[in-house]
Write a structure and sequence with these properties.
Number of helices: 6
Strand content: 35-45%
Oligomer: single chain
CATH architecture of the largest domain: Sandwich
CATH superfamily of the largest domain: Galactose-binding domain-like
Radius of gyration: 45 Å
Number of strands: 48
Shape: elongated
CATH class of the largest domain: Mainly Beta
Strand order of the largest sheet: 2-3-11-5-9-7
Structural class: mainly beta
Length: about 775
């Protein structure tokens, strides 16, 4: 027996490659996994699976150059840096546009020991390369024309029978620490410390008294069964790597089985079933019985008569039966002490009729549904058969995907999004007769779902306001794919879509009525943005020809070298003032959007300017211009003088005696600076302190994109936390203190937010005043 297992190992070692073939993709040039395709190979040349000119198997790859640069085919494989590999490729020349120039193996990367090798023969020739990996993902590159020359399209080469194997002649170390545990009358458990190998240990072989009793599949433990009670056995273990290199056997361990003393019968076998039923044969299978020691065998009964033992297996092949005949089978379990269980429940089995050679009909009405980005479900109408259809086989692009277990539905997954696939189905009967393939169904998988909503539309404006209509416009939203439409809401109710336009005309309104409008953006996947900021619109009275009053109280404040801030008292109107136009030296320079203040910038220093204001109502009636206001901008600020530098040379000041220089930190009144450059234990007084701020000054609050918290959010934060949003808590200040520059920036941020709240409230107050005035006027006219 020992020599028999040694012979088996020798045959395996000599009949297979040195090690695992790393060219493991299923394609036309794989000797171990050949299929009709080019998976794993890529490049700029056109690649085809070829059947008319092959070296090995039934397929090869044909590569055709498509242009001056479309001439390469590439293959990458996973490697171990420093490992030697043997790469074998069969190749031949096909059609050459330029016969004087040959194709070549060239520009390989991630490996050393490779030289450019021309392909010179029009007959199949094997090319062998011995290389060493310098990266974990080397690349093989083949040129359809001689590297590095570039030729026109048309050159053709063939490749086939590609193998990539690692050179490995080093055997693993011997397993150590072999021990036996849980020994019974008939079994023992072996375990050991794993061996090591330069590439990897893949298996262990266990020897009992020098004879192989099995392989562990890589596990470092093995259960030995079917032993004799009160018997001594000697065990050793050897390690095997992927190249079938075998280690020296481990140190031995002796095991003596226990004395047999077992009177308890096994449990009754259950779950008895029959499969592989033919006209004269069946296979019986059942669930293993249990025993206080171990079940060692099973006895099979046919019509109550014993027909054999299984040797401990839970399966038994019955032959010599008559076709179309029903038989009764039972099973009994036996342990090492020859205790036998009760017989199992009866199993009735009917053998098949004489051979069936008639194939089923072709499945029809093949359809695909439940289509996603990576999966589909196929359904079809059942085929018919002279006996019975037992299964269906499903094909994708002509390659079998599997069997449906007799159902007329099949789930396919692992597909690529936005890709076309072709499927067919065949029917099988119990005699393995196969129908023709069904009519194919073509399926396109879905694109990856778009769940990202567009941004919120901004700058919603209203113009051309009449008694019954208004034109809305806004700044376009953005989206990860594309914004396709906008939905308009009037007082929270959707009133229409803009068909992708950023303008929308609202009609059918009531004169002298206030409306509130908002916008949302929609993308092609129907994702909707959040609602935009609202805009309130008051429609005109039926006829408004009365101009507003002239604005008064025009003042200028905060005048600098280049700017000034204008403010004035609000004008009055029979319906409502909606805007103010600013004039500089008689020329219009802008509108305020209804605000009674305006910042004029871009002025010249030390220059006289004259400003006036006119009020506009919703009917576009303009008041007379206000009284003129003359403004003189300030003189330009002179650069700051560095007095310290100027005074540093004064003879009246002893700078050497008064300056203090320190290369390290300085502490005043303390010996612990806590990492600060200057630490003072006590108060500090100074005429001026300058903070060179390293934080963002909060003018960003006035940016249109700034997300101003609502007053409700502010209130909720105060109620939950006891301090303002974006400000430190009392405990944080007590623990960490404050940074003057940072705290001033935080305080200014709050002041600027308060300013925005005040402006918003002022606008709402003015609008309410206008609405009240309009209502009062309407009541007085009744």
């Amino acid at each position: 027996m020992k020599y028999f297992y040694s012979l088996i190992i020798f045959i395996l070692a000599t009949s297979t490659s040195i090690a695992q073939n790393l060219h493991d993709d299923s394609n036309a040039v794989s000797p171990l996994n050949e299929s009709n395709g080019t998976m794993g190979w890529s490049g700029l040349a056109d690649l085809f699976s070829e059947t008319t000119d092959v070296q090995n198997g039934i397929y090869s790859i044909r590569a055709v150059s498509t242009a001056t640069d479309g001439r390469t085919l590439d293959y990458n494989f996973n490697a171990v840096v420093g490992q030697q590999y043997v790469i074998r490729i069969w190749a031949k020349i096909g059609t050459l546009t330029s016969p004087t120039v040959s194709p070549a193996f060239a520009v390989w990367s991630g490996m050393s020991g490779f030289n450019v090798t021309p392909i010179t023969s029009t007959t199949w020739t094997e090319y062998v390369f011995n290389v060493t990996a310098t990266s974990t993902n080397p690349r093989i590159r083949i040129y359809t024309s001689n590297y590095p020359f570039r030729l026109v399209a048309g050159n053709t080469i063939y490749i086939d029978n590609v193998s990539i194997t690692a050179l490995d002649n080093q055997a693993p170390t011997s397993p150590s620490n072999l021990v036996a545990t849980a020994t019974t009358e008939t079994t023992t458990n072996l375990s050991w410390t794993a061996a090591t190998d330069n590439i990897g240990v893949s298996n262990y072989e266990v020897f009992q008294d020098g004879i192989s009793v099995g392989l562990t599949g890589g596990a470092t433990s093995f259960v030995v069964t079917n032993l004799n009670p009160e018997t001594t056995y000697t065990y050793t273990v050897s390690a095997i790597d992927n190249s079938n290199n075998v280690s020296v056997q481990s140190s031995s361990v002796e095991v003596t089985t226990l004395t047999l003393s077992d009177t308890e019968i096994p449990s009754m076998p259950t779950g008895i079933v029959a499969d592989n039923i033919t006209t004269t044969d069946i296979s019986l299978n059942w669930t293993a019985a249990t025993d206080n020691v171990a079940v060692t065998d099973y006895e099979v009964f046919q019509e109550g008569v014993s027909i054999g033992f299984t040797g401990g297996a839970t399966t038994y092949a019955v032959s010599g039966l008559a076709p179309e005949t029903t038989y009764n089978f039972t099973i009994a379990a036996i342990d090492a002490a020859a205790n036998s269980s009760a017989q199992s429940n009866n199993l009735l089995v009917t053998t098949l009729a004489l051979p069936d050679t008639e194939a089923p009909t072709v499945p029809t009405a093949l359809i695909a549904n439940s289509i996603t980005t990576t999966s589909i479900t196929l359904n079809w109408t059942a085929a018919t058969d002279n006996v019975a259809v037992t299964d269906y086989e499903v094909f994708q692009e002509g390659v079998s995907l599997g069997l449906s277990d007799g159902t007329t539905t099949f789930f396919v997954d692992g597909l690529t999004p936005e890709t076309a696939y072709n499927f067919t189905v065949t029917a099988l009967d119990a005699a393995s007769n196969t129908s023709g393939q069904s009519t194919s169904v073509s399926v396109n998988t879905l694109a990856i779902p778009d769940t990202e909503a567009p941004s919120i539309p901004t700058n919603l404006l209203a113009d051309n306001i009449t008694t019954t209509s208004v034109n809305l416009s806004w700044t376009a939203a953005t989206d990860n794919t594309e914004v396709v439409d906008y939905e308009i809401f009037q007082d929270g109710v959707a009133i229409g879509l803009s068909s992708g336009s950023v303008v929308f005309a609202v009609n059918g309104l009531t004169p002298e009525t206030t409306y509130n409008f908002t916008i949302t953006a929609l993308d092609a996947a129907a994702n909707s943005s959040a609602v935009s900021e609202s805009i309130t619109v008051l429609t005109l009275a039926v006829s408004d020809t009365e101009v507003p009053t002239v604005p008064v109280g025009l003042l200028a404040t905060n005048t600098t070298e280049t700017s000034t801030e204008l403010s004035w008292d609000a004008a009055m109107d029979n319906v409502g003032v909606v805007d103010y136009q600013i004039f500089q030296d008689g020329s219009a320079i802008g509108l305020t959007g209804g605000a009674t203040s305006y910042v004029v910038s871009g002025l010249a220093s030390e220059t006289n300017y004259v400003f006036t204001i006119a009020a506009l109502d919703v009917a576009n009636n303009a008041s007379l211009q206000s009284s003129e206001l003359a403004v003189v901008t300030l003189a330009a600020v002179q650069p700051e003088i560095n007095y310290t530098s100027l005074n540093s040379n004064l003879t009246t000041v002893d700078w050497t005696a008064r300056d203090l220089y320190a290369a390290q930190n300085v502490g005043i009144g303390t010996t612990d600076t806590q990492g600060y450059r200057l630490a003072v234990a006590g108060n500090v007084v100074a005429e001026e302190v300058k903070v060179a701020l390293q934080v963002n000054w909060p003018d960003y609050v006035f940016d249109k994109a700034y997300n101003l918290p609502s007053l409700e959010q502010v209130e909720n934060h105060i109620n939950e936390n006891g301090y303002l949003i974006h400000m430190p808590s009392a405990s944080e200040v007590e623990e960490n203190g404050i940074q003057l520059g940072e705290m001033n920036a935080k305080l200014l941020r709050k002041i600027e937010e308060l300013t925005l709240y005040t402006i918003t409230q002022e606008k709402k107050i003015k609008l309410l005043e206008q609405q009240v005035a309009a209502i009062q006027k309407a009541l007085s006219n009744k």
